[in-house]
Amino acid sequence: MFANFLARSGIFYGWWVVFAAAFIVFLSAGTFFYGFGLLVQPLTDEFGWSRASIAGAFSLRSEVSGVAAPVIGFLLDRVGVRRITIAGVLLACLGFVFLSQVESLLMFYVATIVIAVGMSGCGGATAAAAISQWFRRNRGKALGLMTLGGGMGGLSVVGFGWLISEYGWRDALVILAIAQMFFCLPIAFSIRNKPDDLGLKPDGIDEEPAPLAMLAGVAPAPVESAPSFTTRQALQSAMFWKVALVFGLSNYATTGLIVHQVPFLQEQAGASVGFAALSVSLMTALSIPGRLGFGAAADRFSKIWVMVAALAFTATGLVLLATVREPWQLAYALPFFSLGFGAAVPLRSVLQAEYFGLKAFGAIQGMILTVTTLFSVVGPVLAGVMYDASGSYRLAFVFLAMGPLLAIPLVLSLRQARPEAAVVTVTTG
């Protein structure tokens, strides 16, 4: 068995789960999420749809993902990550084939809905549910590594752009569906839901009580110090709504830029199609240090201040991007946005596990995503409407920057808040 091979090699199976999830996110979710902007111009040329209408499909994708998230979260806690991931890969492939055949805006929206549900099943949120079970001490690092799948998915945008230029957007989507089926489905079958399934412990180590605690007659709290909230308990807490709103405001900003980055650079910075596609890959490549660095920092430093830094980077990057008039000026604007955007991806799961525990991780995560995706709808559509009205994205980017700025006070309000029973002490005989 593959698990036995890893064990003999001294590799903790949890790291394979991280790799497997990252690869699936890379090919299934990352390419379409970041590559959506490459479809804007071909769809405009072929059908004459407005930017707001096309951006509305991306926002609809986000909203459907949010609506599906609680259902998928509920299923994650009951049938496990493996089965949901397999179903998600299959549905996403079907959605890409359907999208390649659209002839109307309604068909475009329906295909987007199918893809959204599929990606919800095999995307980063599903992977985070598994990884949060497999790791405790190294959770931030593991989640950061998993989100590299999304970052590398952005790098594949250049390949997606090449497929579109060589074969057209329709055939490019079919090729993408075939690649996902061939590579992602076998890997999905190798995922295990939690370490107990293989007789292992989180992080691959057994916890040992600290000697001083034993002398005092008190066993130390387990690494998972947060209480395990039920979904109802989480929804009834102010903490839940603050966390959800923070990441909603962050998503409002980042999705707004991701949808419109390519057309903005083409029309207002004089960039070629190739350079605009490359800029998306650069953005996601630059997000990798944010995903890894901020994820690891959350294991060592205050998670609150790490999140504040991420939001500040995102807002600064958007304001600077609004000033870009030539392609070379991305050099001073894109790194700020990319680092902040990358950092927020693992930090959502880190903060959720910190405050609400793992008992209903999938369902609580689903509810958080429902709230955050409401904001993901607003960002792209607002930017599209502002472009249709003024012929420019610059003011829209400034409005997008207001989201992470408004989120900073909310994050700081979490600093003194601690969930009830967050510290557990167990007295010994």
Distance between the termini: 42 Å
Class by SSE composition: mainly alpha
Rg over alpha carbons: 21 Å
Which blocks of ≥5 consecutive residues have pLDDT under 50?
A: 208-225, 420-429
The CATH architecture name reads Up-down Bundle
Sheet bearing the most strands, described?
2 strands, antiparallel
Q: What's the CATH C level?
A: Mainly Alpha
The tally of strands reads: 2
What characteristic shape results from the CA principal axes? globular
How many structural domains can be distinguished in the coordinates? 1
Oligomeric state of the chains?
single chain
Order of helices and strands: HHHHHHHHHHHEHHHHHHHE
- Put simply, the count of helices is 18
Describe the secondary structure blueprint for this structure.
Layout lengths: L1 H7 L4 H23 L1 H11 L3 H29 L1 H19 L5 H18 L1 H11 L4 H8 L1 H8 L1 H33 L21 H5 L2 E2 L11 H5 L2 H31 L4 H28 L2 H19 L8 H27 L4 H30 L3 H20 L12 E2 L2
Antiparallel strand pairs: 1-2
Helix pairs in contact: 2-7, 2-8, 2-9, 2-10, 3-13, 4-5, 4-6, 4-17, 5-6, 5-10, 7-8, 7-16, 7-17, 8-14, 8-16, 9-14, 13-14, 13-15, 13-16, 13-17, 13-18, 14-15, 14-16, 15-16, 15-18, 17-18
List keywords for this structure.
429 residues; mainly alpha; Growth Hormone, Chain: A; two-stranded antiparallel sheet; 2 strands; 1% strand; globular
Textual characterization of the structure:
The protein has 429 residues and is an all-alpha fold. The chain has one domain: Growth Hormone, Chain: A, CATH 1.20.1250. A two-stranded antiparallel sheet has the order 1-2. Helix 17 packs antiparallel against helix 18. It is globular. The two termini are 42 Å apart. The relative contact order is 0.16. The C terminus is likely disordered.
